[in-house]
Amino acid sequence: MNMLLKQTLTASILSTMIAGTAFAAPAEAPPAFIKRVADGLIGRLKADHAKLQNNPAAVKAIVRQNLDPYVDSQAFTRIVMGTYATNQYSTAAQRAQFEKNFRETLIENYGTAFAKFSNQTYSMRPYKATGSANPVVTIDFNNNGEKIPVSFQLADKGSQWKIRNINVSGIDLGLQFRNQFAATVKRNGGNLDKAIANFEPDADAAVKKK
Question: What contacts 20, CB < 8 A, 6 or more positions away?
């Protein structure tokens, strides 16, 4: 094979690989993805309900196994840190530390929330594709006759969807957590390292804002 032909074939293969990567998209429809994640998590919580009473560590472990892999923590970090997520206000190391800490506290928040819903039924709202890169899928949890809407905003990660933000009963948790973090920075005199170390997002307080 001469050198020109070899170079041409190599370039063709590389361009095909790059194009395939650029246009890759999750094969799963957004509502199917959310239903799979919700069924997996709630199913585990229901199956182990008796063992989970007064056992937050066990709840946290189940949530970590069944929800954490589907959360886009980098997107959450950017949303919650807000302007502090830019190079002007923080370093890459600070953002990485925030993401690590925030992911841990997210698991605790979601563990508490989903444990409350573990004995409840839910229904999927009709979904209409809009072509958005961040589609939203809404679930209505039936809590003793009261419907509690929980909307999941997704991010297209190529091979699968991931959850980048959550809205509960009309409350944007990402935005509320951002306000909580900004208040934490202020309480710590603008010291970002201290604010990151001390930040504890409170989902219950965020939802009660309504």
Answer: none
Confidence of residue 194 (pLDDT cuts 50, 70, 90): very high
Assessment of whether the complete model's pTM goes beyond 0.85: no
Taken in order of first residue, the domains within the chain and their CATH numbers are 34-207 (3.10.450.710)
Backbone angles phi, psi at 122, to 5 degrees: -145, 160
**CA dist., res. 140 & res. 123, Å (int):** 5
19: pLDDT strictly greater than 80: no
Question: What digits encode the pLDDT tens for the residues 124-156?
Answer: 999 988 888 899 999 998 877 888 898 999 999
DSSP string, 79-124: HHHGGGGSTTT--HHHHHHHHHHHHHHHHHHHHHHHHHHTTSEEEE
Cross-sheet strand order for the sheet of 136-143: 121-124, 136-143, 146-156, 161-168, 171-172
Instruction: Give Cβ neighbours of residue 106 (< 8 Å, ≥ 6 apart).
Output: 71, 73, 76, 201
**Residue 121: how many other CB atoms lie within 10 Å:** 10
CB 175 within 8 Å of CB 47: no
Average pLDDT (2-11) is 38
- Residue carrying structure tokens 């973090």: 181
Q: What is the residue type of 184?
A: T
